[in-house]
Amino acid sequence: MNMKEQLENIRLTAEIELGKITAEPELEAAKIKYLGKKGELTAILKGMGSLSAEERPVIGQTANTVRGFIEEKISAIEAGLKEKSNALKLEAEKLDVTIPGKKRGIGHKHPLSIVLDEVKDIFTGMGFQIATGPEVEWDYYNFEALNLPKNHPARDTQDTFYITENMLLRTQTSPVQIRYMEKNRPPIRIIAPGRTYRSDPVDATHSPLFHQIEGLVVDKGITMADLKGTLLAFAKRLYGEGTKLRLRPHHFPFTEPSCEVDVSCFKCGGEGCPMCKGEGFIEILGAGMVHPNVLKNGGIDPEEYSGFAFGVGLERLTMFRFAIDDLRLFFENDLRFLSQF
Ligand code: DAH
Questions:
Q1: Atom of ligand 1 nearest to the CA of 174
Q2: What is the rounded distance in angstroms from the CA atom of residue 263 to the CA atom of residue 89?
Q3: Does residue 8 have a pLDDT over 90?
Q4: Range 111-338: architecture per CATH
Q5: CA distance 130 to 192
Q6: Which of 155, 183, 184 is nearest to 171 (CA)?
Q7: pLDDT, averaged across the chain
Q8: Whole-angstrom distance, CA of residue 167 vs CA of residue 69
Q9: Which atom of ligand 1 approaches the CA of 196 most closely?
């Protein structure tokens, strides 16, 4: 076989082999085989030294033609493979913008917070400020200063968790009254919401942890009429314009006189129904005129100033507000319950 025939042979086999290529690695191998430094064409070109002066340009031209042919073929295959892999890539990266998005669950306020925020709005709207106090409290602030000396029988109804003999988890928000009076002069108008504790077993209406909202107003010439007017405005805002108030005499050591405050049943409007147990009224809070001893313990002269105070259970308010019949629901974190608000 002369060189010309060899070259023609290379062209033919290259055409057949290149025609079968379907993937990148095969193409790389073919490049090396035909065009590489140790490739078949190169080998022939190296042997051209033995040719005569007439033959050399002819063979050289043929070799170049074959080389050009192979190069063209290879770059065509290269382009085809590239196109194919791009199409595959695109297919894999395809984004279907019509698929519905994943919904992210957004939380919302706990029912107790909903009602607490309403209560705060109502009272701040009447010029009250929000005060706070510690949940771990001294016996002095929780009892003594509120006219409940050691051995006072009313302490029995407020058994709690003791840290030491004189330090405890507060049973009521009333100690904030004393703490606030110690640091502020009248006129005082505050509500003090917060956690309170009692060692009560858990049932539908009791929990060792619950919440109260304390109210305190101290100024010159404050009377029971201010107490009633303020609480009536509060009850109307919370339970509706038609709400009526009923004050029943009661006893609290830190107020004199003291009362329990009922609101007309928001279910039956006062007629009597299962909600109010036929009473027409529902008790919502305790209140009274601040006892002179309590004012004194807060550093305020009872001869010059008078005041009223009240304490509301937040769980109770919320249960009535949303007709919830079991207090345990507030603390169990059951989403079937919580997601209803
Ligand atoms: N601290 C009382 C309790 O937990 C509620 C209360 C009653 C608070 C009368 C007051 C008040 O400020 O004047 O039972």
A1: 1
A2: 71
A3: no
A4: 2-Layer Sandwich (3.30)
A5: 6
A6: 155
A7: 92
A8: 99
A9: 4
Tell me if residue 162 falls in helix, strand or coil.
Answer: strand
Ligand 1 cavity residues, CB under 6 Å = 172, 174, 214, 252, 255, 286-288, 309-311
Ranges assigned E (strand) in the chain: 129-130, 136-138, 162-164, 167-169, 188-197, 209-219, 245-252, 255-264, 281-290, 306-313
Distance of CA 243 to the CA centre of its chain: 35
Q: Is the dihedral of CA 134, 138, 136, 155 positive or negative?
A: negative
- Give 170 or 28, the one with higher predicted confidence: 170
203-224: pLDDT as tens digits:
988 999 999 999 999 999 999 9
Write phi, then psi, for 101 (nearest 5 degrees).
-70, 165
Mutation choice for ligand 1 from 123, 128, 174, 216, CB with most ligand atoms inside 8 A = 174
Name the DSSP letter for residue 254: T
User: Per-residue pLDDT tens for 273-289?
Assistant: 887 889 999 999 999 99
User: Measuring CA to CA, how many Å separate 72 from each of 6, 69, 238, 245?
Assistant: 20, 5, 87, 99
For residues 6 and 1, give the distance between their C-alpha atoms in angstroms, rounded to a whole number: 6
